[in-house]
Amino acid sequence: MAGRRRPSNRYELFTCAWKGHDLVGVGAAEITRQDDIVVRECDGVRFHRCLRCDAWVMHPIPEHPTRDRVERREEIEVPARGAVLRDRYVLRLIAVDRAIHVVVLTTLALVLFTFASHDQSLHRDYTNIMNDLAGGDPGSTQARGILGYFGRAFKYSPAHLITLALVLVAYAALEATEMVGLWFNKRWAEYLTFVATTVLIPYEVYELTLRVSVFKLVVLAINLAVAIYLLLAKRLFGLRGGHRVEMARREALSGWEAIERATPRRVGSSEQGEPAPASL
Fold first, then answer.
1. Distance between CA 234 and CA 242 in Å, rounded?
2. Taking the CB of residue 49, how many other CB atoms lie within 10 A of it?
3. How many CA atoms lie within 13 A of 170 on its CB side?
4. Strands 276-277 vs 266-267: parallel, antiparallel or unpaired
């Protein structure tokens, strides 16, 4: 049995499922033939078109209209749809990845600040714990795992720990800036994320030459995917036409041109002689 084909507008359907349909003209007193692209009337019932997923939603004619006519095109903000909406989901997925980085880096910075401010007391407690585990012989037990990382931290002076913590805070701030910019689909955030990601790739490759681990491979694969996607799909640095072509693509795939291409023709007729939407 052949697998079920996924709908071509699955991103639009998912978005409308949790945000609701994007309808216009719901409170209009009357509609005209010029409004066919967004709202149609049949047998005393209006059908409003979702500007995102193209579904026709039935609404009764308002008893108390809030406006005389349907909004003009220049008054309507067309929502993202098609490939543009897909790109927005990808960028927000990268933003979530950056949010995880921010949490991890901030936590590590707080731990280092704590170590630096309570270095002597923590070192004394750590030594007592290791002595207890070793049965009074510190050399008989090798610290591993979390205790091993704690032991390494005590090899650095409080000043070095504070410096390292400040570096982590600065990097967390950079990641947070990327996160916010990508979430709101800002062009500058795409450039910032690409540069910040590619700078780390040589270091990650070097780390793999020292010791291969699944975690390192996954991190490298994610960063490579992010860099390649931003460079090619988002046309950074003038590649594939650059920003001008990207803006034209957005307009063609997510503006009124895309809505007009997906508009169904009128077929059939009602008692008033007004044809109904073809999809109904």
1. 8
2. 27
3. 7
4. antiparallel
